[in-house]
Write a structure and sequence with these properties.
The complex is a heterodimer of chains A (about 80) and B (about 220). With about 80 residues, chain A is an alpha+beta fold. Chain A is built from 2 helices and 4 strands. The N and C termini of chain A lie far apart (about 30 Å). Chain B has about 220 residues and is an alpha/beta fold. The chains are: A alpha+beta (about 80), B alpha/beta (about 220).
């Protein structure tokens, strides 16, 4: 729910940290960020290009972790 | 207990929203939920839209605000039916509030119902109110970083109206960057860049809106 007025379900968002293998440049990191952000339940993505550490804020009711993983793997990246 | 109660409220709202939409659809009415920050230009956009389209479309407006009937009065001066809902502190309209005023609408003589929601980029995104589509007004003066900061409302919208483009020369608003962010968040969204003051760009907004009305009527006729 909205933490200010306590309506809605946005506090149902979850934050995960994963490592994406195979990111070589900051531009490829940006491409992945854009790809994930376009998914219905993904609200925020930040990738550290130097080590692939990725923070994702998402609503599991709209997009599952499996969906996210499959999107990454179909783009040729391995999730650790 | 609190999480369960909120989930029940959202589920109940969805049921009423679906009932609202079914009633509007039965009469072939396209319903738009107009969203945006306070001061983004929602009411000004409505005034221009009514002025330019009221000879082509039968329009009615529901106005949502915490207090006052200021916006309803502005719309009434345009000569179309308008109903004001005051939430008296609530930060968004919900489906029950809209259901509460349906009897004040003439559903038999209506093509397009626009519901101007309470100014807020957060909570209205969570509550369907019986609409067919959401439209978000984003003004130049709010800054180009707002789509990434408030992604849910942009994910939910069918169109973004970037307003006050006449002020672009006086700001450092990055139009290309903002549009890229919007498309990254919602690849299927439409974008219209307009100035309600000068009239620039409004034709693209009208084209989108009229297409939605026509499509809705076509779907209803085929059903």
């Amino acid at each position: 729910m909205c933490t200010a007025c306590k309506c809605g379900s946005q506090s149902d968002n979850e934050r995960i940290t994963i490592i994406i293998k195979g990111i070589n440049t900051s531009s490829s990191a940006k491409t992945i960020e854009k790809t994930l952000l376009g998914m219905p339940g993904v609200m925020h993505v930040h990738i550290h290009a130097h080590d692939g550490q990725t923070i994702i804020d998402y609503n599991p009711a709209r997009t599952s972790l499996d969906d996210i993983t499959q999107r990454l793997e179909s783009a040729g990246y391995h999730v650790q | 207990m609190e999480v369960k109660v909120m989930k029940n409220i959202l589920e109940k709202n969805e049921i009423i929203a679906a009932e609202n939409n079914a009633l509007f659809s039965k009469h072939g009415i396209f319903v738009l939920n107009l969203l945006g920050s306070p001061g983004s230009g929602k009411t000004s956009l409505l005034e221009r839209t009514i002025e330019d389209l009221k000879d082509e479309l039968r329009l009615t407006v529901i106005e949502g605000d915490l207090f006052t009937s200021k916006d309803a009065e502005r719309i009434a001066r345009q000569g179309v039916p308008v109903v004001q809902i005051n939430t008296c502190g609530g930060c968004h309209l919900d489906a029950g509030m809209v259901r509460g005023v349906i009897n004040e609408l003439n559903l038999n003589a209506l093509d397009l119902l626009i519901i101007e929601n309470v100014g807020n980029l957060v909570c209205p995104a969570e509550f369907n109110i019986g609409e067919d589509a959401k439209a978000v007004v984003l003004s130049i003066t709010e800054g180009d970083d707002k789509p990434l900061k408030y992604p849910l409302i942009f994910k939910q919208a069918g169109i973004v109206i970037i307003n006050k483009i006449d002020l672009l020369p006086y700001t450092n608003f990055d139009m290309a960057g903002a549009q890229e962010d919007i498309f990254n968040i919602n690849p299927s969204i439409a974008i219209a860049s307009v100035s309600c003051r000068s009239g620039e760009g409004l034709a693209s907004w009208y084209k989108w809106l009229k297409q939605q009305v026509v499509t809705k009527k076509g779907l209803i006729n085929r059903a």
